[in-house]
Amino acid sequence: MSGETHAAATQSVRTVLGDIAPGDLGACNAHDHLFLLSPCLPGEELDDVEAARAELDSFALAGGSAVAQWTPWGMGRRLSELPALSRATGVHLIAATGLHQAKHYRDERFPHGVEKLADLFVRELTRGPVRAGLIKVAAPFHRLDAHANRTMAAAARAHHATGAPIGVHLEGGTAALDTLDLLCGDHGVPAHRVILGHLLRYPDPAVHLRAAEAGAFLAFDGPSRAHHAVDWRLYECVAALADAGYADRVLLGGDTVVASARATADGPGMRHLLEGIRGRIAQEIGPDVAHAIFVTNPANAFAAHWRAPAAVVPDTGHAH
After folding, report:
1. How many CB atoms sit inside 10 A of residue 61's CB?
2. pLDDT tens readout for residues 114-163
3. pLDDT tens-digit map of 185-214
4. Structural domain boundaries in the chain
5. Does residue 162 contact residue 122 with C-beta atoms inside 8 Å?
């Protein structure tokens, strides 16, 4: 296994019901959505509280204990609904602040400027009755545009001010190394505080290995209706990382972004992570690897030394 364990006793995971010890997180779906609205997904909105409850109940029955909801600011994440859902189902919920790609917001109705964005992220991480435990940002396909540069600079500032982990949507699984160069090289974010999402959509083992060597967490998701063509490569990607000594860098999530993918509709839903994928990983790659992916690694990835700053820490990296 690479590196050291980062979920020390002084760290905690910030859930919608408050901070918990990393060891209390349990079996975790590390990347999913209970609620999500986007003009890019008309007719597939995740906006039904009862459906979200049913999905969490099915996940809990399969042995699930925690879900990280990566829906960021301005995309219908229903932050105020999450505590009641967590209490009713017994599932820990980690909420996200942050900002997605500009195309997911109507008429660009989102804050502009690094400082304003960073202030928003810090406020949602440290204040209010329901606090986020993750900063979600996004990279476009194979490149980092001006919007990604701004939001990632803001995310870095918010990380330095609070200690929060940063989760990154990688469009089509691309731009992973460019993202690490920007966040870690330019803005000084420790690589183990970065979670790179959707890497299975670009199943390049060389890229995966370099990201793991850098110390980042690699989030694979599936099975996915939109990206089903590469779902079968999940096990070989995980096995390659485990063989190289990086099983401690791997996370798995369902990434349910459309209503039809839920277990209560026509998809396998969150429970498939535990009822299907976990068992096959344990059988083909090893039970220790399965335990790391679903229990130990999420506890490390989402744990932080949380700080409550009076102001956002200025960026010490390059200007973008």
Report:
1. 12
2. 999 999 999 999 999 999 999 999 999 999 999 999 999 999 999 999 99
3. 999 999 999 999 999 999 999 999 999 999
4. 12-304
5. yes
Check: CB of residue 248 under 8 Å from CB of residue 2. Answer: yes
3-state percent helix, strand, coil for the chain, nearest multiple of 5: 45, 15, 40
What CATH architecture is 12-304? Alpha-Beta Barrel (3.20)
Helices then strands, each counted (H, E), the chain: 11, 12
Distance CA 166, CA 168 (A): 6
The full length of the chain comes to 320
- For residues 48-73, give the mean pLDDT: 96
- What is the Cα–Cα distance from 74 to 33, expressed in whole angstroms? 14
Token pair for 165: 């982990």
Give the whole-number percent of the chain exceeding pLDDT 70: 87
Give the whole-angstrom CA distance, residue 134 versus residue 69.
9
DSSP per residue, 58-79: HHHHTT--EEEE---TTS---G
How does DSSP classify residue 312? P
CA distances to 50, 53, 56, 64, 280 from 81, rounded to whole Å, are 11, 10, 13, 20, 34
Token digits of residue 45 = 């909105």
First to last CA, the chain: 35
DSSP letters for 246-261: -GGGEEEE----SGGG
Gap between the Cα atoms of 177 and 202, Å rounded: 12
For residue 243, is pLDDT > 70?
Answer: yes
